[in-house]
Amino acid sequence: MWEDRAHRARRDIAALAASGLGVSELHAAAMDVVARSVGTELTCWATIDPETLVISTMTNGPTRIPVEYEPRLAESEYGSDQPHSFAGLARRGSTVAKLSELPERDRRRSTRLQNVWRPLGVDQELRLMFLADGVCWGAAGMVRCGSDFTARETDYLAALGPALAAATRLAVRSEAHGHSAAARPAVVVVGADGTLRSSTPAAREWQDRLDGIAPARFALMMQVMASGARSAASGGFAARIRDAEGEWAALTASPLLGEDADEVAVVIEPVSADQLVGLLLAAYGLSPREREVCHEVMAGRSTAEIAASLFISVNTVQDHLKSIFAKVAVRSRGELVARLRPAA
């Protein structure tokens, strides 16, 4: 029975989470667990930033798509109005989605299906979202040729989603606590054709850090940022990613004005400890109101000041603090602030 297999798989995933693995190592090991019951030609798992819904890390299965197809896949992920994008599924709170379930008109406009999967000889895709308490922490993309993913396989994967979300959240929390800012800010200009036109000297260091994950990962990420900026209604696109050394970087992209309007400038900066606070608050499973209370505490405000600022009673503030302390495993405001500000 698939229920028994799902139970064993959830137990194995929980054990992986408890072993203290980093996100990439966790996902690689969890892929093996899933592969026992669901076969694929290609699979790629991603960590998704819960605040921006942009991919921050990627882990490939034993077989990866040819490098020349990766820009096409990135473009389809961040192009405008693409069906079943990770960000779109996360916003809808979807757990499992199959391309075969889309109306034919949506399948025809899926650049991922038309420009990547079919040229590679695969035509069945399933996406599994890692959702915990309504927050998206990651996702898995699985493709194969021939037979579609069955109802039992879909139910099995849906049953694993929450366990994978909890494990990913724990790994992200651990890595955020170990963060230390490094490297210098850099600027990269990406042309309309996706090529890197120019960059500041510090960009080479970031390139080495990202290419340490996989060959040409830096160029791919620059193309992702450029595609996202061109598709964004605001004209800007932001993401946080991790490099091969586990360090976090903040990326912002915006189209250039004037004669070079088709070019996009991407700014890369090391993420400060304070910039990771929002990620940690989500990783500890705090409610929106609890996060507001945490920000007030970190600003040094008293209980009475927090109550006045948030228009709630002093008793309610104290109730929130009691819940926060329990979730973060601290006993005082001082411990809370220290826990939420990773060493810089």
Describe what this molecule looks like in 3D.
- It contains 14 helices and ten strands.
- With 344 residues, the chain is α+β, with helices and mostly antiparallel strands.
- The protein has three domains: 176 residues, Beta-Lactamase; 89 residues, PAS domain (Beta-Lactamase, 2-Layer Sandwich), CATH 3.30.450.20; 55 residues, Winged helix-like DNA-binding domain superfamily/Winged helix DNA-binding domain (Arc Repressor Mutant, subunit A), CATH 1.10.10.10.
- It has a five-stranded antiparallel β-sheet with strand order 2-1-5-4-3, sandwiched between helices. Strands 7-6-10-9-8 form a five-stranded antiparallel β-sheet, covered by helices on one side.
- Helix 2 packs antiparallel against helix 7 and helix 3 runs antiparallel to helix 6.
- The protein is globular, with a radius of gyration of 21 Å.
- The mean pLDDT is 89.
Brief summary:
By secondary structure, the protein is α+β, with helices and mostly antiparallel strands. The chain has helices at 2-18, 23-35, 70-78, 86-92, 104-108, 111-117, 151-177, 203-211, 217-231, 277-283, 288-298, 303-310, 314-328, 333-340; strands spanning 42-48, 55-60, 96-98, 124-132, 135-144, 186-190, 196-199, 237-242, 248-255, 264-270. The chain has three domains: 2-177, 2-Layer Sandwich (Beta-Lactamase); 186-274, PAS domain (Beta-Lactamase, 2-Layer Sandwich), CATH 3.30.450.20; 286-340, Winged helix-like DNA-binding domain superfamily/Winged helix DNA-binding domain (Arc Repressor Mutant, subunit A), CATH 1.10.10.
